[in-house]
Design brief:
This protein is an alpha+beta fold. 26% of the residues lie in helices and 26% in strands. The protein contains 10 helices and 16 strands. The chain has a 6-stranded mixed sheet, sandwiched between helices. The chain has a 4-stranded mixed sheet with strand order 1-2-5-6.
Length: 378
């Protein structure tokens, strides 16, 4: 599957990891369960911080609300205690409860002492509203679907219209799951920061690729009216950079810069939520009756992490769109993929003619009639 770099766009200046995905951070895995049939287009995506028991070996965690029109579970305790103690699940708005219950079941099975000799568990579930393509009122997902997403987690994973991203839309085009990573280098070591997004936000006329105003041309060619921004985005940030909870929260806030680079202004009805974790400092559930030691970078070194999360977030969003296939969903509603508007041989010429003539999009994107012809043949 081609990603945004395969079309000639290199977002930012920092180097990427081997896969250019969140799983470039060692130990991180991602799994999907997809439900796509008739009017039902939805699913679940899991993100594991490491290969061990996350409840017994918690990771430093933080959340940040850019715009709070969202229904996450678990964020209050994460910001109070500064740790994450379960895998992360992403899904649609009306299946947050089912996924929370499944995540609790998953953790209870691994840890029989929970609710007996120790306390309870704090699951984290994030969501976006996929009602445009999915019959969200059907609440089609079950606990078994969430368990499948947890059990399918692996290092290399699909992007686009899969898992929680199956029914999502972004800038009036198909959205979904996307990822990217960046390498951070210091004298004291080399580290990785990765981002995974569930994209479901934005207005078509505001859409931008690497600073270029693409949305207005697309809107004109498709002859559509831009809908108000009522969607959402979930951003998951992973890193092996040694940071404190406070530093991590500062880092993940900068994902907002990457979101805005694609054209978002964080509309009133958009729930824009970020969760992040560092795998470097594990926090044991049980006390050893001794002091705990934590490593952390100096504050003067944090700018590289700020840049990394901004670049990776921007590229993850574009990857979520260009890897997502055109989808016909609830009531026959069709949402086109961004990739249906690319031509392999014209990407470079777009950059050349952009400066000379703003209206050169016709040399970059396929003619609207050609687009319809191509899509109907899929």
């Amino acid at each position: 599957m081609k990603r945004i770099r395969d079309y000639g766009y290199k977002i930012g200046t920092m180097n990427t990891g081997k896969l250019n995905k969140i799983t470039d951070v060692h130990g991180v895995k991602v799994g999907h369960q997809t439900f796509a049939k008739g009017d039902l287009h939805t699913g679940v995506t899991s993100v594991f911080p490491h290969n061990g028991n996350v409840f017994k070996e918690k990771v430093v965690g933080a959340t940040h609300v850019i715009n709070g029109f969202g229904k996450t579970v678990g964020s209050i305790q994460i910001n109070e205690l500064g740790t994450i103690e379960t895998p992360i699940l992403l899904t649609n708005t009306f299946n947050v409860g089912v996924c929370s219950e499944a995540l609790i079941e998953y953790t209870l099975k691994q840890n029989p002492e929970i609710g007996r000799t120790t306390g309870t568990v704090n699951p984290f579930v994030g969501e976006c509203n996929d009602m445009i393509l999915n019959d969200i009122r059907a609440m089609a997902l079950t606990k078994e679907d969430a368990h499948h997403a947890l059990n399918k987690a692996r290092v290399d994973f699909e992007e686009g219209a899969t898992g929680a991203g199956t029914g999502m839309s972004c800038f009036g085009l198909k959205g979904g799951i996307g990822s990217s990573s960046r390498i951070i280098q210091y004298e004291h070591g080399t580290y990785t920061l990765g981002v995974l997004v569930l994209s479901n936000f934005g207005q078509l006329d505001q859409f931008r690729i690497d600073g270029r105003d693409i949305g207005k041309s697309l809107k004109q060619q498709l002859d559509v009216t831009s809908e108000p921004d009522k969607g959402s985005i979930m951003v998951v940030v992973a890193t092996d950079l040694p940071v404190s909870h406070r530093q991590l929260r500062r880092v993940i806030k900068r994902s907002a810069a990457g979101i805005s680079r694609t054209g978002s202004f964080y509309g009133n009805g958009s729930g824009d939520i970020v969760i992040g974790f560092s795998t470097d400092n594990k926090v044991p559930h049980n006390s050893s009756n001794g002091l705990q030691s934590f490593k952390a970078i100096h504050e003067d070194d944090i700018n590289q992490a700020f840049q990394a999360v901004s670049e990776a977030t921007e590229e993850a969003i574009l990857n979520s769109m260009v890897t997502a296939k055109t989808t016909v969903g609830r009531g026959g509603k069709k949402i086109y993929s961004l990739r249906d508007f690319f031509t392999d041989d014209l990407t470079a010429s777009f950059s050349d003619c952009y400066v000379k003539y703003y209206g050169c999009y016709d040399n970059f994107f396929l003619n609207y009639r050609q687009v319809i012809k191509r899509v109907t043949q899929l």
